[in-house]
Design goal:
73 residues, mainly alpha, 3 helices, 0% strand, cytoplasm
Length: 73
């Protein structure tokens, strides 16, 4: 993974990161790649999973904040 790859993934919305992660998992499960290609794909999958987690954490925070405001009212 290059810095450019990571920068690109950092711009992905949740759905795009999730969809690409699903494709990465499918490709890894199919096998047939050499070790270097498998590791590169796995690293991309890790970066995509991290991006999904960032989106989910942000959504969770927004829900918690909204519930907190509601309780204060």
């Amino acid at each position: 993974m290059t810095d450019n790859d990571l920068a690109e993934i950092a711009t992905f919305g949740y759905e795009r990161a999730r969809d690409e992660l699903v494709n990465v998992v499918k490709m890894l499960e199919q096998g047939g790649m050499d070790l270097d290609d498998s590791l590169t794909l796995w690293e991309r999958g890790e970066a995509l999973a991290t991006r999904c987690e960032e989106h989910l954490a942000g959504a969770r925070k927004r829900v918690e904040d909204a519930l907190s405001r509601r309780e204060e009212e």
